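Supplementary Methods, section 5.1.

A reviewer requested that the exact input to the structure prediction be made available. We therefore reproduce it here, unchanged from the version used in the analyses.
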Amino acid sequence: MKNFESIGEAIKNCRKEKGLTQPQLAALVGVTHAAISYWENDINVPSVKVCWSIADTLGVTIDELVGRV
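The structure derived from this sequence is encoded token-by-token as follows.
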């Protein structure tokens, strides 16, 4: 996985790599489709707790999700 400019871009790219739609990821993580959209468009950012769930669901580490690698 490459470094991303933002967590929103990382979520979007990882989600697409896994072949998931925003509604599918939202259901797996337990949030609304709108929340995924806000994060991917850098309108808002997920909490740390939700980042753990997103990372686990997408099969990446938190560091990868926030661009620390």
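The longest helix spans residues 7-17. These observations are discussed further in the main text.
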